[in-house]
Amino acid sequence: MRLEGKVSVVTGAAQGIGKATALKFAAEGSKVVICDVRLGSMDEISAELKEMDAEFLAYEVNVVNRDQIKTMVDDVVSKWGKIDVLVNNAGITADNQLIKMPEEDFDKVIDVNLKGVFNCTQIVVPVMSDNGGGVVLNASSVVGLYGNFGQTNYAATKWGVIGMTKTWAKELGKKNIRVNAIAPGFIATPMVKKMPEKVIEMMEGKAPLRRLGTPEDIANAYAFLASEEASFITGTVLSVDGGVVL
């Protein structure tokens, strides 16, 4: 098991990529800290982790709220003594064309997807440093690399995450903390599955592999980057997109 003995925090863990990542990390031997904006939304993943006999803690955390993050981190350290891996997965969308986008929709996406990553990382990194190192993994997107119609706010956050990833890799390497990002393509999350069939078929057709990615595809990539197999990888953005941008 590649993550045996590790303590991993996954934000936005209630569903989709976050849920798949938490389950994958647990299967790889990690103790898992799951958090989401509503505690009740994690009932399903909590039940699955219990079935696996995994060691886990669950917290209600809004990544915009630094006090909630600090309370969670302090409690994890008091119980398990450390945090080895942080997966900054929590994110939202509020799509609209530039000229139609309300300012409040721009602000709330920036707050969660960009500042939320900053908040969590800034609070967790001192714990990692005190423990001799760690791994920070950030959720970017192919939208952050190439843009997307109607997603000014989302694209800005995912491009910003790449900038923070590369900056933190330079700053934190001396503390033995690796920082990487993953840029998923079209992934069959619960949100995507609710889209019209024609839209899903369009997304599938754009990828050379002719399918949507699964949350497990992204979770597998996170598990690799969190493991010692990736011990000389930092500051990179791994595209897991089925070749959609080729």
Describe the protein in words.
Keywords: Fatty acid biosynthesis, Fatty acid metabolism, Lipid biosynthesis, Lipid metabolism, NADP, Oxidoreductase. NADP(+) binds at residues 62-63, 89, 154-158, 187. It catalyses: a (3R)-hydroxyacyl-[ACP] + NADP(+) = a 3-oxoacyl-[ACP] + NADPH + H(+). With 246 residues, this protein is α/β, with parallel strands linked by helices. Helix content is 47%, strand content 15%. The protein contains nine helices and seven strands. The chain has helices spanning 16-27, 43-51, 66-80, 103-130, 142-146, 152-172, 190-193, 197-206, 215-226; strands at residues 7-11, 31-36, 56-60, 85-88, 134-139, 177-184, 237-240. Strands 3-2-1-4-5-6-7 form a seven-stranded parallel sheet, with helices on both faces. The mean pLDDT is 95.
- Unreliably modeled segments: none
Give the biggest beta sheet.
7 strands, parallel
Order of helices and strands: EHEHEHEHEHHEHHHE
Tally of strands: 7
Write out the strand line-up for the largest beta sheet, numbering strands in chain order. 3-2-1-4-5-6-7
- Outline, from the CA principal axes? globular
Using only C-alpha atoms, the radius of gyration works out to 17 Å
| CATH-level-2 architecture | 3-Layer(aba) Sandwich
Mean pLDDT: 95
CATH class: Alpha Beta
Fraction in beta strands: 15-25%
CATH topology: Rossmann fold
Structural class, from helix and strand content? Answer: alpha/beta
Structure annotation, total helices: 9
First-last Cα distance:
34 Å
Helix content: 40-55%
How many domains, in number, for the residues? 1
CATH homologous superfamily descriptor: NAD(P)-binding Rossmann-like Domain
